Amino acid sequence: MADxxxxxxxxxxxxxxEIFMPPPDVxxxxxxxxxxxxxxxxxxxxxxxxCIFLQQHPQYITGxxxxxxxxxxxxxxxxxxxxxxxxxISDKEALAxxxxxxxxxxxxxxxxxxxxxxxxxxxxxxxxxxxxxxDVNYAPEVFAELKKVIxxxxxxxxxxxxxxxxxxxxxxxxxxxxxxxxxxWSTAVALxxxxxDVSVFVLTGQQP
Length: 208
Fold this sequence. Notes:
CATH superfamily: Vaccinia Virus protein VP39
Low-confidence stretches: none
Largest sheet: 7 strands, mixed
Strand content: 25-35%
Number of strands: 9
Order of helices and strands: EEHHEHEHEEHEHEE
CATH architecture: 3-Layer(aba) Sandwich
Number of helices: 6
Structural class: alpha/beta
């Protein structure tokens, strides 16, 4: 039987971040009847792009209470934990949490909490200072609910930082967020021998 935990290192600026993830054969076996449920099991370019943004703009997370929603393997949350006061990393797939917990232990992060949480239920959670979202706006059928959740946090003066690959299907959704974007930033992310353009938006409740 294959080891269900493998490690992979990501270089964020001058920092090497090694996390745990499931090997492809374990993912295929676990989600053979629902491949879409396995999106959490790999690191996407938007997650790396968000880490790069936070590395270059640490003021958004330093000393803050941070919540990462739909985190999957939690790379941005794990990166943020080195600067933040407290980080909660959440995903609706409970299995994702076991990998995040092992990564946090490996990285000796004592300020990380892992929760099984659907982002749609995030409005019932205690308010953080900052919400992190990466590559969550890929399915048009969830855009309205996602906008509602983001709006909830913005109304409560919580900063929302969202990263997204520059895909056409996401453009209408991102356009609705632009009035709240205090910062717009982009970078090219090289991952698994491919390059993707990633945009990051810092959203606040006050329209600029």
